[in-house]
Amino acid sequence: MGASKTESFSFEQNEMATLFKALSHPARIAIVDYLLTVDSCICGDIVNELPLAQPTISQHLKELKNANIIKGTIEGTAICYCINPDTIDKIENHFGMIRHKLKNKCC
Amino acid sequence: MGASKTESFSFEQNEMATLFKALSHPARIAIVDYLLTVDSCICGDIVNELPLAQPTISQHLKELKNANIIKGTIEGTAICYCINPDTIDKIENHFGMIRHKLKNKCC
DNA sequence: TTGTTTTATCGTAATATTGCAATATAATAA
DNA sequence: TTATTATATTGCAATATTACGATAAAACAA
């Protein structure tokens, strides 16, 4: 064993787990943070911003892109990455649901 | 290589990454879901609810506990787990911040 | 005490993630 | 065309995660 038993869980559960997994690394949190501080959706100077090698950043960007947390558009030789607000909405809604269910609970 | 370069990132970035990592597995999402559906904070019949062996559930519960997403109180031989609303708050605040910074952005 | 029930831990195999050097690809410039 | 720049992919070593059988520990009952 060792692999996750994803087939045992619902689509929604797997979907949320995938979103959280994409955000489960400090470098990827830092990338999201950085994309939020720059006013325009600046591209690969993320490599200059973070203490990781270019292939490593590229890999983290790919994971964020696969999870739909960011999207990238080609601009000449560069690629412009930015946050996907729809996915942020989806995560916020999930916590809204949790918050709602948590009302009138003990503990 | 292979280990995360956690020391290269801020406390907050590591903290959020740790929270998301705790939620990055469908079984742990399912545990949180289940704890939200039961009215009282029911304990280890999570084992009966999920298609995973007892040691595996115990391990997942430990990770959720370490991340402060759930807390457990001893009740005789059983242990009663429930959601920690403070941690839910913390995550919601993080997305509140993202939402706020995302206002007036292009892409 | 012994037995029962419930949860945690140990040990280990299978698999996944992280990080980077080397290399490849894509778009533009000269 | 060749060069340059920016990003992606490959390959691999180090490490982490997942899952579970076996076993231990903790709380109570008889």
Descriptive account of the structure:
Chains A, B: Residues 8-103 form the HTH arsR-type domain. The structure is a homodimer of 107-residue chains. The mean pLDDT of chain A is 91. Chain A is mostly helical and 107 residues long. In chain A, 27% of the residues are buried. The first copy, chain A, has one domain (11-102): Winged helix-like DNA-binding domain superfamily/Winged helix DNA-binding domain (Arc Repressor Mutant, subunit A), CATH 1.10.10.10. The first copy, chain A, is built from five helices and two strands, in the order ααααββα. In chain A, β1 (70-75) and β2 form a beta hairpin. Chain A binds a DNA duplex (30 and 30 nucleotides) through residues 1-5, 25, 27, 43-44, 47, 52-62, 74, 76-79.
Number of helices of chain A: 5
CATH fold node name of chain A: Arc Repressor Mutant, subunit A
Query: What is the helix/strand order of chain A?
Result: HHHHEEH
Largest interface chains and counts: A-B, 45 and 45 residues
- Beta strands of chain A, count: 2
Name of the CATH class of chain A: Mainly Alpha
What does the oligomeric state look like here? Answer: homodimer
Structural class label of chain A: mainly alpha
Domain HTH arsR-type (chains A, B): 8-103
Protein name (chains A, B): Metalloregulator ArsR/SmtB family transcription factor
Keywords (chains A, B): DNA-binding, Transcription, Transcription regulation
InterPro entries (chains A, B): ArsR-like_HTH (IPR011991), HTH_ArsR_DNA-bd_dom (IPR001845), HTH_MetalResp_TranReg (IPR051081), WH-like_DNA-bd_sf (IPR036388), WH_DNA-bd_sf (IPR036390)
